[in-house]
Fold this sequence. Notes:
It is a single chain. This protein is of the alpha/beta class. It is built from nine helices and eight strands. It has helices at residues 5-11, 24-32, 35-40, 57-63, 74-80, 100-109, 126-131, 145-151, 158-162, and strands at 14-20, 43-50, 67-70, 85-89, 94-95, 114-118, 141-144, 168-175. Strands 3-2-1-4-7 form a five-stranded mixed sheet, sandwiched between helices. The protein has a three-stranded mixed sheet with strand order 5-8-6. Helix 2 runs parallel beside helix 4.
Amino acid sequence: xxxxxxxxxxxxxxxxxxxTQNSDEALARTLGGLVGGAxxxxxSDVIIIDQGSIDQTHRVADAAGCIFLQDQTLIDxxxxxxxxxxxxxEPGARLLDGWMEPTAVHVERMQGPACFTRSHTHRRPFxxxxxxPGNPLADGLLISxxxxxxxxxxxxxxxxxxxxxxxxxxxxxxxxxxSAKT
Length: 182
């Protein structure tokens, strides 16, 4: 039985989830890197899960056409997401040109969790990677909705879901939030 193209296309789309708090400028940088994915139809929606920001985070999200969930939890974001695949990013992280094709191929093959490769100028030194685990969400997380729901428990954040996962590293570059201020 052949799957209709429209259904297959919907299955390949991704929902972006970003947890924020007082991150208006950082969020704008992240959303700017996602525009190509929205134009190409890879992204179905971008959900901002805000934890009580008092800056202009809500205006940045609104201007970009994001779904803005204020004072709600990650599970609320899961429920609002329209896709079967999630892309978790930190505010300030920037996906670099060329991220869409490796991401779409990964989702199409349903290969489990994945993260992006840090851009050459933002890679951590070897000893730092070995002796300091770092932020588990710094390189993003691409994961199925089903697996996200299985790993979720009340009080968990996206970084908690990413922690300890064996992830495939995509051939697509990211500038982590901690490095993306320039």
